[in-house]
Amino acid sequence: MTRQIRNILFIMFDQLRWDYLGCAGHPFLETPHIDALAARGVRFSRTYVQSPVCGASRMSTYTGRYVSSHGAAWNNFPLKVGERTIGSHLRRLGMESWLIGKTHMKADAAGMEELGVSRDGVIGARVAECGFDPWVRDDGLWGEGPDGFYDDKRSPYNAYLHAQGYDVANPWHDHANAGVTEAGDMASGWLMQHADRPANIREQDSETPWLTSRAIEFMEAKRGAAPWLCHLSYIKPHWPYIVPAPYHAMYGRNQVVPPVRHPSERAAPHPVYEQYMNNAIGRAFSRDAVRDKVIPAYMGLIKQCDDQMGRLFAYLEDSGRMEDTLIVITSDHGDYLGDHWLGEKDLFHECSVKVPLIIFDPRAEADDTRGTVCDALVEQIDLAATFIEAAGGEVPAHVVEGRSLMPFLEGAAPEDWRSFAISEYDYSATPMAANLGLAPRDARLFMVADTRWKFMHAEGGFRPMLFDLHSDPQELTDLGASPAHAGIIDAMYARLGLWARRMAQRTAISDAQILGMRGKSRRTGILLGLYDGTEVPEELTVRYRGPAPHLKE
Amino acid sequence: MTRQIRNILFIMFDQLRWDYLGCAGHPFLETPHIDALAARGVRFSRTYVQSPVCGASRMSTYTGRYVSSHGAAWNNFPLKVGERTIGSHLRRLGMESWLIGKTHMKADAAGMEELGVSRDGVIGARVAECGFDPWVRDDGLWGEGPDGFYDDKRSPYNAYLHAQGYDVANPWHDHANAGVTEAGDMASGWLMQHADRPANIREQDSETPWLTSRAIEFMEAKRGAAPWLCHLSYIKPHWPYIVPAPYHAMYGRNQVVPPVRHPSERAAPHPVYEQYMNNAIGRAFSRDAVRDKVIPAYMGLIKQCDDQMGRLFAYLEDSGRMEDTLIVITSDHGDYLGDHWLGEKDLFHECSVKVPLIIFDPRAEADDTRGTVCDALVEQIDLAATFIEAAGGEVPAHVVEGRSLMPFLEGAAPEDWRSFAISEYDYSATPMAANLGLAPRDARLFMVADTRWKFMHAEGGFRPMLFDLHSDPQELTDLGASPAHAGIIDAMYARLGLWARRMAQRTAISDAQILGMRGKSRRTGILLGLYDGTEVPEELTVRYRGPAPHLKE
Q1: Alpha-carbon span A251 to B477, nearest angstrom
Q2: pLDDT single digits (tens) B292-347
Q3: Radius of gyration of chain B (CA)
Q4: In the predicted model, what is the mean pLDDT of residues B184-194?
Q5: Chain B residues touching residue A530 (CB < 8 angstroms)
């Protein structure tokens, strides 16, 4: 069998930090299966998501466009009708596009209704599912409170657990994401004091193996069928931080790396950063007790993910798919885990905005780069472009803002590669915006990062933030108010301006079509600037010569 | 009858300069009917279009959004599916939206097909017609050359002329836009040497009276029907510059005002400006012979427009519509007519980018401002917002970027009115871009103007342009390379950056919806940052308390 790219297995983890992998240098966490893929592919060590939050990050990754371009700037902000996705691009190229797991996509119901696009039709169903055909769609957030469920769709995972005999209303929570106290009470994974308990579920029924089984089932069903992209989109190691046995006990507080933080960060912080430090999450993760409970569970969740990768890759080898499948492993954002006095994601420190990215290309053309690490500035929107090129298409640069990574896989870095990366964050729907008194359009952040400087602009009249990654790789010293760095800040603003003026919405006409229009209107009779017609070849005016027609009075 | 706003008559001329009206101070051209409307309404003396070219300008006006926001950046660049228009906003408010005349809208056929939106349905028909129901759609450009027609639709105007007995294939050209030479040959209006001849058509059959008749017919048909907006969109005084008798002879070279230009403009000009000066149009309009032929015809076309306004306003008075109709008169851009060594439009000198704008509001609330001139910085996208408010709606600020002018009509200028106006120009499809060696995404210009400074940024690595409208109201001295103005240029770049980072695509969720989301996820069971649950009211965690369910092995 010739090694080729026939399929694409696009694996995304959720909230997986770039540095919580063996191959990325974690001192305690061993991820041999993922490391093995890195050894056979290229690891991109400087990959930024376009927004450090699930929904916005994914909408960028699935469209190949910046957040400001597609507008779905936060969780549950709908992706507006008309935004093209990986699925719509690949389907034109004869490649199916399937989803197994999470997208966090909210359909633009009002926009669909306005255009008469119904979910009952195949077009509308795909529009509502971010361009994918869902093999199984499950966003993994079946939280429930006084106002009902966070996600009001049907839960395929709960349906699965019910079929396995878990006979409570919401086994996602009561089993998969809760342990048991010594007194026999439910120990909800939402309460981080319980993070060291085993989840009250059979390991094979927990979310990560469940999705792996669906992926293997999918690939079995698709043997010999049309080429496919399969977006295998895991929910973990995202919170709730709780994991079934034996993973709950694999790591302890001795394997918790010290937090990257310094008291000086709390002196005169940027007002937006300060808000995040002072919210409930930041305060909780600043406590050692919380980190010592949560991080071993987080590591256990990753360890389980890695074991499932082992299972998946074994299937790929056995079925021959390793010969014809481009495999990508990445994440939608990281997790502060107490670094910089923060929890969760949202801001632009490396642990939040940088993600793992490993690409395995089965072709002989990629043999020279196997096992290498590429430190080029990658934006996760590059994946959409990569997939289009991998599927044999030409990247429609008037729509997809990312660039194909295929040249890097073939060992030929483009000379005109980008010199800075962009990420954005819209916190308009958060209490932090309310605390700062910001209108929804002012609660927006922009990151501009090159290989040395990382800059953040905040709308709303705040000063910027700036880190020197050379002298301060841990990003502990904010130079945003430093007069000595005014020139750097100006230069970063110039880059932000260049990017902000980009051509992002001229999506209904291609560059090639525009080039084809140049100077053509004369040949359809639009004759400007002529005095007597001698200025142009006679053929352009011949239709307007000859005897005048008679005018009846 | 109480004076109220029940209907909106939105009159647009094409290529009408702001200063070619009696009420704007033209020394020779008398436009008593338009002036009379200005005397009964408000004339906005500083109104900028969002792009000085038909298609892009109109797509901004019809969507209420900047060119970079909707992407239809030049003539025949499609308006992508999903962009909302005046029609879609007003129809929700119970107001119909009708078109009589020109839009220059190109439907996004590929986008419609991708979403399964068919022109055969009422939704698709409106999407394809920029949100309007066409009473008659006629873009007035029935030019024909070796490659066929510029506009491949059916021509309603040619059908009308055929019905009137003009029995040639293309009477738009051969009659309406051509005269007769002394030898009896056709004197095409495309050749400017013929601009002083009368068009070979009965005056009442020429384009301007034809559309006026359609508008009166429309209003007669709609008596007693639902409220309407009627976009009466004239084709004139746009080229070809030729007009029927008696208008062809009303003005002569003695009424041609001198060109606003200076030889110093040709020394070291901005490279983009230089390209436009040196193209066929710029060269032609730099000749006095051309101006002396063309400008009297242009004035005659305007005079005919004004006479048709008289006819229209008489109908409005007689039918009672003057009591219940908001009336707007404006244009889609100006015409250089030889000023600054240029013809046509395209760049940002006042004669190109500034347009007339007169609004008559029948309500008593507007009585205090009748006959006044408002010099606030108006962008033509403000009209969409004005219409929505006039129709009783609230302006959806997450979609419509313009702001309502109703407060100005009521004599109450908002305190937070904009301090600068934006216009854009995309010349990627022109020979000028080819001459400059520019890729399609680099052939883009941006204007930032306040009441003193007018600044132009050009992508592609060029210096900016800058004019001081106080000391140089004729815009003859380009300060874009002046070291003394570096501070002003920096400030204009900062404004451009602020604008470029605007929130333009978050259109699928309103600000009110976002404010309603703040802090709500906890009440749907997303409980972040909790250690033992004591951090929040008990009701938020009660669902996650109680005995643990039994786990079957």
Answers
A1: 72
A2: 999 999 999 999 999 999 999 999 999 999 999 999 999 999 999 999 999 999 99
A3: 26
A4: 97
A5: 190-192, 280, 284
Residues 188-207 of chain A with CB under 8 A from chain B are 188, 190-193, 200-202
Percent of chain B at pLDDT > 70 equals 100
Q: Does A241 touch chain B (CB under 8 A)?
A: no
Output the pLDDT for position B553.
72
Q: Kind and range of the H or E element at A359?
A: strand A357-360
| pLDDT confidence bin for B521, thresholds 50/70/90 | confident
Residues of A in contact with B184 (CB under 8 A): 547-548
Dist CA B78 CA A506 (whole Å): 9
Q: Does B544 touch chain A (CB under 8 A)?
A: yes
Using the beta-carbon criterion (under 8 Å), do B506 and A202 form an inter-chain contact?
A: no
Interface probe with B: pick from A424, A526, A536, most Cβ of B within 10 Å: A526
Nearest to B70 by CA among B105, B109, B46: B105
Residue of A nearest to B150 (CA): A524
What is A367-427 written as a DSSP string? GGGTTEEE-S-EETTHHHHHHHHHTTPPP-TTT--S---HHHHTT---TT--S-EEEEEE-
Cα-based distances in Å from A434 to A358, B72, B511, B517: 39, 36, 13, 11
> Which residues, other chains included, contact A290 with Cβ-Cβ below 8 Å and sequence gap of 6+?
A192, A284, A338, A343, B531
Q: How far is B49 from chain A (nearest CA, A)?
A: 19
Q: Is B451 on the interface with A (CB under 8 A)?
A: no
What part of A 356-385 touches B (C-beta under 8 Å)?
Answer: none
Distance CA B392, CA A308 (A): 58
Question: Residue range B86-93: average pLDDT?
Answer: 98
- Rounded to a whole number, what is the distance in Å from the CA of B383 to chain A's nearest CA? 22
Q: Closest-CA residue in chain A for B83?
A: A82
> What is the dotted CATH code of the domain comprising A7-338+358-414?
3.40.720.10
Return the closest-CA partner of residue B238 out of B276, B203, B279, B207: B207
CA atoms of A494 and A322, how far apart (whole Å): 45
Nearest to A505 by CA among A80, A110, A126, A127: A80
Interface touch B552/A430, C-beta < 8 Å: no
B410 close contact with A: CB closer than 8 A: no
Domain B419-516 listed as CATH 3.30.1120:
yes
Show which of residues 142-181 on chain B sit within 8 Å of chain A, judged by CB atoms: 143-150, 165-168, 171, 173-175, 178-181
Residue A441 CA to residue A502 CA, distance in Å, equals: 20
The alpha carbon dihedral of A306, A312, A313, A318 has a sign of: positive
Block means of pLDDT (10 residues each) for chain A, 553 residues, are 92 98 98 98 98 98 98 97 98 98 97 96 96 97 95 96 97 98 97 98 98 98 96 98 98 97 97 97 97 98 98 98 98 98 98 98 98 98 98 98 98 96 98 97 98 98 98 98 98 97 97 92 93 94 93 82
User: A89 — contact with chain B (CB < 8 Å)?
Assistant: no
**Cross-chain Cβ contact B202/A496 below 8 Å:** no
pLDDT exceeding 90 applies to what percent of chain B? Answer: 98
**Is the CB of A531 less than 8 angstroms away from the CB of B127?**
no
Please indicate whether, in this complex, the C-beta atoms of B431 and A501 are within 8 angstroms of each other: no
- B1: confidence class by pLDDT, cuts 50, 70, 90: low
| Domain coordinates in residue numbering, chain A | 7-338+358-414, 419-516, 518-544
List Cβ<8 Å contacts ≥24 apart for A32-35: A32/A306, A32/A310, A33/A306, A33/A307, A33/A309, A33/A310, A33/A313, A34/A305, A34/A306, A34/A309, A34/A329, A34/A356, A34/A358
